[in-house]
Amino acid sequence: MQKAIKKYWPIFVLPTLAAFIIGFIIPFIQGVYLAFCQFTTVRDATFNGVSNFIRALSDNTFTHAFWYNCAFVVVTTIAINVGGLAVALILTKAIRGRNIFRTVFFMPNLIGGIVLGYIWQILLNCVLSLLEKPLLNLDATAGFWGLVILMCWQQIGYMMIIYVAGLQSIPDTLVEAAEIDGATRWQTFWRVKLPMLMPSITICLFLTITNSFKLFDQNMALTGGQPAHQSELLAYNIYYTFYGRSGPQWRGIGQAKAVIFCAIVVVIALVQLRLTRRKEVQQ
User: Fold this and answer.
1) What is the pTM of this model?
2) What does the pLDDT average to over 161-172?
3) Which 8-state DSSP code applies to residue 41?
């Protein structure tokens, strides 16, 4: 079997590698180049140096979207991981119907972002109307918390599944030994379970941070960046710059914003992975 795999590995690897190069590597390199150009299509690009990056960084809507997105990432990362871990701790106990509850909590992750955005827009605007508060598209603060609620509702169930798998992989002997030594439930969780959960925490933090930065379709459906671009996250701001503003100069500026956005997410994700992996323990 191993000899057959070694002999025929190009048949399995080359199609995937070719698709990856054609569908990702080449467009990525071309996108980085276009960030230094003024263009309307990829065939009429004119190199203009770093002027696109200068104009992107001086765009007030982009800097506002960056800080707005950072606040959103911090709030959602904490809320989703605390919520997902809390639900996982409950649903790993011997309670009736726990598999049904796991399925119910996971189901929102299967619904498309656009659909979720419009559903929650209707629900939250109805609640705000009853409370006589500004609607989501009329107040940036309301839009922010609307996005947080939507993101938590969609993602907590997904993170719960990862935390459940992590909790179930913890040897029962460690928990039993802690209980025999007189450890309380909190001490057992903090000193035994949490350190053993670090691989799951690493994955969940990575997913929540990157998903929160990349959020686009829910932002477009729920608030549309209103009012006056005050509820735009970075991905939606890039989309609007590229497609919503007239003039060939905005295509290059939008592309420059995309490159900056990519660099920000990659750096933050790598730092997070490095910091959390240091705290992982071997079973």
Assistant:
1) 0.88
2) 88
3) S
